[in-house]
């Protein structure tokens, strides 16, 4: 099975454009890699787990949750410290801090077996979206997961931006 990986965050999208972007990218499988599957505020309420899953089902897009790929509290705290040191608001971050990257690789990616993700897909999966919240993929752990999948299986990766 040859698949394509796309990455998408919710920040910067409104509900209609978010789901339209998934449709245009021909996503058939949506992989939520958040450890906490809620988003604060009414603007992004559509990305809260139950609403998100219901809308994806209406669109015929399969949903899977890989909590093991979500950064732990300790890892998230490393990024929060880096953001504080640079006085960067979370939603304005454009890159991940080195401490976060190292901790995420050690705590999450070291144990992640990429084949386990592919094995969890339906046999007809063609386009898999890795989802978290940040706008820029470089500011989100989804880019680290996408890079590992791309290198392991020589897969194409496309980032969907608002």
Can you walk me through this structure?
This protein has 162 residues and is α/β, with parallel strands linked by helices. The protein has one domain (4-160). It is 40% helix and 15% strand. The protein has six helices and five strands, in the order E-H-E-H-E-H-H-H-E-H-E. It has helices spanning 15-24, 49-58, 73-86, 98-109, 114-119, 142-153, and strands spanning 4-9, 29-32, 62-65, 127-132, 156-160. Strands 3-2-4-1-5 form a five-stranded parallel β-sheet, with helices on both faces. Helix 2 links the parallel strand 2 and strand 3 (62-65). Helix 3 packs antiparallel against helix 4 (98-109). It is globular and about 45 Å long. The two termini are 29 Å apart. The mean pLDDT is 94.
H/E element string?
Answer: EHEHEHHHEHE
Q: DSSP strand (E) fraction?
A: 15-25%
Number of strands: 5
Give helix % range.
25-40%
Strand order of the largest sheet: 3-2-4-1-5
- Note the gap between the termini: 29 Å
Question: The biggest beta sheet, please?
Answer: 5 strands, parallel
Task: Briefly note the structural class of the backbone.
Answer: alpha/beta
How many helices does DSSP assign? Answer: 6
Mean pLDDT reading: 94
- What form results from the Cα inertia axes? globular
Q: Indicate how many domains the architecture comprises.
A: 1
Stretches where pLDDT is under 50 for at least 5 consecutive residues are none
Q: Which radius of gyration do the C-alpha atoms yield? A: 15 Å
């Amino acid at each position: 099975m040859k698949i394509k990986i796309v990455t998408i965050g919710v920040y910067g999208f409104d509900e209609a454009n978010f789901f339209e972007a998934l449709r245009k990218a021909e996503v058939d499988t949506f992989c939520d890699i958040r450890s906490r599957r809620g988003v604060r505020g009414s603007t992004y309420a559509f990305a809260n787990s139950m609403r998100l899953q219901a809308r994806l089902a209406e669109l015929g897009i399969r949903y899977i949750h890989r909590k093991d790929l979500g950064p732990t509290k300790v890892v998230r705290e490393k990024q929060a410290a880096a953001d504080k040191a640079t006085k960067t608001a979370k939603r304005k971050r454009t890159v991940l801090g080195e401490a976060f990257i190292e901790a995420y690789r050690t705590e999450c990616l070291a144990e992640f077996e990429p084949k386990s993700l592919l094995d969890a897909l339906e046999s007809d999966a063609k386009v898999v979206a890795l989802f978290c919240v940040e706008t820029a993929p470089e500011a989100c752990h989804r880019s680290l997961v996408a890079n590992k999948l791309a290198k392991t299986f020589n897969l194409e990766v496309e980032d969907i931006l608002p």
